[in-house]
Amino acid sequence: xxxxxxxxxxxxxxxxxxxxxxxxxxxxxxxxxxxxxxxxxxxxxxxxxxxxxxxxxxxxxxxxxxxxxxxxxxxxxxxxxxxxxxxxxxxxxxxxxxxxxxxxxxxxxxxxxxxxxxxxxxxxxxxxxxxxxxxxxxxxxxxxxxxxxxxxxxxxxxxxxxxxxxxxxxxxxxxxxxxxxxxxxxxxxxxxxxxxxxxxxxxxxxxxxxxxxxxxxxxxxxxxxxxxxxxxxxxxxxxxxxxxxxxxxxxxxxxxxxxxxxxxxxxxxxxxxxxxxxxxxxxxxxxxxxxxxxxxxxxxxxxxxxxxxxxxxxxxxxxxxxxxxxxxxxxxxxxxxxxxxxxxxxxxxxxxxxxxxxxxxxxxxxxxxxxxxxxxxxxxxxxxxxxxxxxxxxxxxxxxxxxxxxxxxxxxxxxxxxxxxxxxxxxxxxxxxxxxxxxxxxxxxxxxxxxxx
Length: 453
Known about the structure:
- The protein has helices at residues 2-10, 26-32, 64-71, 79-86, 102-115, 185-196, 212-219, 275-290, 295-302, 331-344, 362-366, 370-376, 395-402, 412-422, 440-449; strands at 16-19, 36-39, 53-55, 76-78, 92-97, 121-123, 135-136, 142-146, 151-153, 156-159, 168-171, 204-208, 226-230, 242-247, 255-260, 263-269, 313-318, 321-326, 353-357, 382-386, 406-409, 428-432.
- By secondary structure, it is of the alpha/beta class.
- The strands form five sheets. Strands 7-6-8-5-11-12-13-14-15-16 form a ten-stranded mixed beta sheet. It has a six-stranded mixed beta sheet with strand order 17-18-22-19-20-21, with helices on both faces.
- Strand 15 and strand 16 form a beta hairpin.
- Helix 14 (412-422) packs parallel to helix 15.
- The protein is globular, with a radius of gyration of 22 Å.
- The model has no long low-confidence stretch (mean pLDDT 90).
């Protein structure tokens, strides 16, 4: 919604908005762009009445603003519908969908197009450091959009991405998530197939070759050319129009050769963590080629890619202890993030990998992923869980399953003290949450800085 506010502002529209518990980096971005954000959802925020209310999907019936909007007969729409009606007509839409990696892959694709001089528009659910903005109109026909399967609004229960009508579609992966709105995995697959139905025959679908859930979606009907990617396979193309793979991968994953149908396209050297991000890069390269970017040029662009805020963002290096902030909130994403850090760690410095996790997403709060959460942190030497107090399940069971290397606390300040007391030079601390996490990043940095040298 913050990105849509930016786009509306760039269209010359006077924009204000409201939210609860707004926090950086989005709060800072909106303030810097001159967009007024009011705290809370009081009906008074709609006085004087705006010409149009763009309603986010966090809003529901019973909310004072929603009730006032309906009672006064104000014009309203959803964020995705506003994008579809005011931004996307006439654009070559390049959508990035999937359970994980949407923000990073969309940022990669936007940067490749920018590096090629194509000045794309984009709407991304994070702030790419190469742009310092989560959204812009751009100066060409190309528009990159992070395409979320979550529902659109209280009055439109379709997935957001059905509004975007992409010509180029990336589906990174597909797992069960968003248990608060989807009954099961088949429910999610149905929405993804609705998206597939909208991609034209002269478009392109890009998907992993080994994801069985995506295969199920494709088998329901696909009318568009398909290219696949797999960072773990050297096999030739099997059924798809092209297969993107990698070889000669450096042990710490900072370098690899890109292959398309067994033809070496060039070597990537970059500073991004994790094999999952290699897959993200392959998908972005394939999508950029569809838009006309030569593959060697896309590979060159990756060397200057600066990642995304809150995606393994370095927050501090204090007394030899490194603190990262990451958005991971699904067990699969947590495991991949920790795997990426472990690959980069130098075993000779005796540093340890410390995971700090806030189970904040709706699916996590409902306990949908509790059976696989313990395995997701297997690569961590020590794990700290924050208990927000409103979980529908007992975190203590996970801590017991992990053993003596796991700790849980319901107080952020107490958690910070425990992490500080455990930490030593060489440790890598990864804080994972899709929220502000009670300001733990700054609190931990300050606590570590106050430690005796």
